[in-house]
Design a protein that fits this description.
alpha/beta, 6-stranded mixed β-sheet, 6 helices
Length: about 250
């Protein structure tokens, strides 16, 4: 079984076309391509998502993803929970799977801790409520200003950050694993790594602080994450992915 990782796709799966990702010529559904958050393939929660999801289902590999901050959590929660390779997932298609937060999976003989989520930083100018009587006026004004804002339950969801239950689930599963895994896959980075990446623009939160705790307590080989739209290695074992597709060996 081969395992590949890539960064944010935001509903655009062109990098997985055969002519771009030629390795798939010899792959089967046992092989996995894992997206490090901001998958975006379930964005509208209706038939408008079908083209992208059906494209992935036709690929000769299984697509898995941890959720990011730009996901439609209202739509994602409508998919049932199932057990898969030692952890809990939500199958979006038979071979398109969302990895639930705080799970430890056994993939190709490797133990992987998955913890999706991140804070949106493109909401500086506010989050509009769609049932606000002045919604249209506010939307048009902010849009005309080029403001950074989003709309609750349309382009932003509070579930972008884990719940206390999800943090508890993560710690319990890491305890069962003896706080030792091969790889960590998340959307955002631990606080210290985010600080190194963003410097004065870094805004740590409960999730980056939790991942910092994990990075200090857990034994692991590499931590893969997306979110920051670049490809680079930080401090030797923290790997930021965007459009690059990386095979684990």
């Amino acid at each position: 079984m081969a395992l590949y990782l890539t960064g944010d796709t935001h509903g655009n799966f062109r990098r997985l076309l055969p002519e771009a990702f030629y390795e798939q010529e010899t792959m089967t559904k046992e092989n996995i391509v894992l997206v490090c958050g901001d998958f975006g393939g379930v964005w509208y929660g209706d038939k408008r998502d079908n083209d992208g999801l059906d494209f992935l289902e036709r690929r000769p590999f299984t697509t898995a993803f941890v959720p990011g901050n730009h996901e439609n959590y209202d739509a994602l929660r409508t998919y049932p929970l199932e057990e898969w390779r030692g952890g809990t997932v939500r199958p979006i298609r038979p071979s398109v799977l969302m990895l639930e937060r705080g799970q430890v999976f056994e993939l190709g003989g490797k133990r992987i801790f998955a913890m999706g989520g991140a804070s949106s930083h493109d909401i500086r100018d506010g989050i509009l409520e769609p049932d606000d009587p002045l919604f249209q006026k506010k939307f048009q004004r902010l849009n005309a200003q080029g403001a950074l804002f989003r709309v609750n339950h349309r382009s932003w969801w509070k579930e972008e950050l884990p719940s206390e239950e999800e943090y508890g689930e993560a710690k319990a599963n890491l305890e069962k694993a003896g706080w030792a895994v091969d790889y960590i896959v998340t959307h955002c980075a631990p606080t210290s790594i985010q600080n190194a990446l963003l410097r004065e623009h870094s805004a740590p939160d409960a999730l980056t602080d939790f991942l910092e705790e994990v990075s200090q307590r857990c034994r692991f080989k590499y931590h893969f994450f997306g979110h920051y739209h670049s490809n680079q290695v930080i401090q030797q074992k923290y790997v930021l992915l965007y459009e690059q597709i990386l095979r684990l060996k």
